[in-house]
Amino acid sequence: xxxxxxxxxxxxxxxxxxxxxxxxxxxxxxxxxxxxxxxxxxxxxxxxxxxxxxxxxxxxxxxxxxxxxxxxxxxxxxxxxxxxxxxxxxxxxxxxxxxxxxxxxxxxxxxxxxxxxxxxxxxxxxxxxxxxxxxxxxxxxxxxxxxxxxxxxxxxxxxxxxxxxxxxxxxxxxxxxxxxxxxxxxxxxxxxxxxxxxxxxxxxxxxxxxxxxxxxxxxxxxxxxxxxxxxxxxxxxxxxxxxxxxxxxxxxxxxxxxxxxxxxxxxxxxxxxxxxxxxxxxxxxxxxxxxxxxxxxxxxxxxxxxxxxxxxxxxxxxxxxxxxxxxxxxxxxxxxxxxxxxxxxxxxxxxxxx
Length: 354
Ligand SMILES: [Zn+2]
Description:
354 residues; DNA polymerase, domain 1; alpha/beta; single chain
């Protein structure tokens, strides 16, 4: 709520600088490990980078009243009530870091938890739009106690994200094979790829192009602001032979776009029937699926992939966000491919290869 007030206030600022300042404060609040009242009681708020006196005033107002009179007055004076309402609707179903920390700490043995988790299945390296090498990502994963990762750089259909050509993908496979050799079985990098779902539901990779790929993610990156129904597009993607995971299924982005509208229960039913896992993407701006839709996917019988969508090792922390949504949706570890032992995961990947 506090972060939302700061974002609303940012939107109605006339200067770019103050707009940026309040946005930065909102982001700092969302990333706090502890709830704001605790942070205030501990007296550490003034030392948090990005939160200045003007933002602190808004924060105190929200904590006192449940809303900020300053922000509400500014919105009324700006005449942008419609835009603010639209943006507020784009922020539902998101968890702050403090909420994530609280949810993953609750002891409910029947639901997936951090201790069950053995490795992330969506991440990007310098081979596409990531910031670190595959070796660095593997080391970061090992430091977290994981025993495998799937490296899923973008494929050729997404040039804007540095998508790999087929030849580049082959060279990446060579690098991964060599790296796996050095791990001598202690750790495994799976050769994955994040294929792009075109608007007609087909993928940018098919047939022979998928040779050597061990884990195929299919993800939408276009027509994510369209309000028309796109059930057929998503059904076609799920029915494509060889697809293991439907990644960030909606393609929504906090504060920016709603993502795909579809009859999700039909999509989940089809995914469950074909053994395609549904992803909960833990990137804080995505949180896609969120716990409400994930709950319906659980009811529909789906498997799940809980991933960070990391572009550097620091972002592995986003797996916590995915786990928190899964817990709110009541998902047990047995339904989560990240929690299976490696032979079971490899067997499942083999069974579903196109
Ligand atoms: Zn993506």
